[in-house]
Structures are given as C-alpha cells and as structure tokens.
C-alpha cells in the first residue's frame, strides 16, 4: 500500500510540475510509473493473502491461549463458580492425567 501511495504522489508531482513549467511530460516516464503502479498493485494482492494467513494463525493462537487460561482457572481456587458438568469434566481430566502419570512411573521403575 505504501508503494502505491508513493506512485500516486509521483504521478501527481509529475502532472503538477508539467503545469507549472509548461514542459512536455515524457511518455516513457509515465509508462515506467504506470508499470511500477501495476507492480505495486499486484504486490498488495499477495500481501492480502499473507495477511489472511497471519489472521488465521493468530486466531488459532488466541484459541489455544484461551484454553490455557481456562485450564489455569480450573487448577486454581475458582472451582466454586463451576457447574456440576464442568466439575465432572475436570474430574475426568484429572483421573486420566493421574492414570498416565502412574503408567509412566511404572515403566520407569
């Protein structure tokens, strides 16, 4: 986007300069400016896809962080605010974790 703005400003400056000095604008400089403008426009399309990929990545990261925050809350003293269903889920997770720890301990001993 910045490149596009710079190209637009250059076109504006060229046109303004030609009006002030009453000089002839060379066709080749306009063509090169237009080519740079087209290139900048196509680059901005590629930037859009990169932006979308970044947005998806950060959405996934925020979902992971939300889940980690929720787990940290469950590990803390805020259990009184949980419903019965959430307490059952927490109990199941804890039991599975304890089972994995015991099996790992048994394999090490």
From TrEMBL:
Transmembrane segments: none annotated. This is K-box domain-containing protein. GO terms for cellular component: nucleus. PROSITE patterns: K_BOX (PS51297). GO terms for molecular function: DNA-binding transcription factor activity. Residues 50-109 form the K-box domain. Pfam families: K-box. InterPro entries: TF_Kbox (IPR002487).
């Amino acid at each position: 986007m910045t490149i596009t703005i710079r190209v637009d400003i250059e076109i504006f400056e060229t046109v303004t300069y030609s009006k002030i000095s009453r000089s002839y604008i060379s066709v080749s400089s306009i063509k090169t400016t237009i080519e740079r403008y087209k290139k900048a426009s196509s680059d901005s399309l590629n930037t859009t896809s990169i932006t979308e990929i970044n947005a998806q990545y950060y959405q996934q990261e925020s979902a992971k962080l939300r889940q980690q925050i929720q787990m940290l809350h469950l590990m803390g003293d805020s259990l009184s605010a949980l419903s019965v269903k959430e307490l059952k889920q927490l109990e199941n997770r804890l039991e599975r974790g304890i089972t994995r720890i015991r099996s790992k301990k048994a394999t090490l001993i």
